Amino acid sequence: MGQLNIDRCARTFNCLIADDSEFARKNIGKVVSMLGGNVVAEAANGEEAVDLYDRLNPDLVLLDITMPVLDGVDTLRRIIEMDKNAKVIIVSSVGHKEMVWKAICLGARYFVTKPFSPEYVSTIIKSVIEGGQGGLK
Of the candidates 18, 27, 56, 99, which lies 20 to 30 Å from 114 by C-alpha distance? Predict the structure, then answer.
């Protein structure tokens, strides 16, 4: 990722990354690490993400909308049922308005479209970790 102008978060945080693409998980994981976060787990499908969230209770979830077994909307719904204060950012290459709207209504803090710049995503992650409510991006 070269020289990036990314300031670390004010505190360390634990993150779960759920995406069926290993490449995408590694890329977003690099940004999390640059911010001072720990990627405590990676999930390749929605069911794994729900199980890992339940076991690990991470501070943040970066969640793809299109995944096997459970899609991102159903995954988000189950995570929010477990923890109404869960901090979830949807990161997806698919910009279906209906799915995005459902995710935001269910409690996703932000929606970020792939491909993304590391600086942009780092700003969003910092905002959510440091208390921002987010919105549609």
Answer: 56
